């Protein structure tokens, strides 16, 4: 990493706390005392993402925006390769959407109030009745017109390659009943790898696929829909983000070979 990029990465890292606080306070003031519109207040998280990308020298390009209808709610489903996913999507996707965050984050002073001000959606990730209720509440918010972005891998990929999708996010899509849009995050892992604090910078491409209707899928089809979405996201990724092929002697490869022989 060059001295210039090291400086920019350090500056971006040090900027996150004060910028986040400033954005949250601005959103709170705007929603309560000025324009009083949560939709218009989305300018604040967008400004947060765009500024951090620019400071860190992360150059973002979006492909496939023509696939979206500005008037429709969607669930965006993407690979999760880096914290730069959040920065780039926040800053450069203009479609009206909300982030989903675990309920504990809403208890953080200023940050939680800021998330409520811009209408972020709370999810209870514990088990039991409250978790089911929060999932149902989130589904109602989405079906009522709130687009969201989800990362079904559950966590950031350590090597930037696409991992299997968990079905929790898929169940939310099925409950909401809105179209699902695959998104490929390319270059974000290289720009800010998992485990590193300072951004390396570079080019990032967000590829937006065509919406996939969910109305014909039922709860029992969640694994099938997860597989379809996984494939659609993979089609939007550069080769360096694709899953590595299964070794020939792996259990999965052996099963597939047996199936081909039997067929």
From TrEMBL:
InterPro entries (UniProt xref): AGP_acyltrans, Plipid/glycerol_acylTrfase
Record field: catalytic activity: a 1-acyl-sn-glycero-3-phosphate + an acyl-CoA = a 1,2-diacyl-sn-glycero-3-phosphate + CoA
Pathway: Lipid metabolism; Phospholipid metabolism; CDP-diacylglycerol biosynthesis; CDP-diacylglycerol from sn-glycerol 3-phosphate: step 2/3
Documented EC number(s): 2.3.1.51
Top-level lineage group: Bacteria
A Pfam family matched in the record: Acyltransferase
Protein family: Belongs to the 1-acyl-sn-glycerol-3-phosphate acyltransferase family.
Entry text on domains: The HXXXXD motif is essential for acyltransferase activity and may constitute the binding site for the phosphate moiety of the glycerol-3-phosphate.
Protein name: 1-acyl-sn-glycerol-3-phosphate acyltransferase
Organism: Candidatus Electrothrix marina
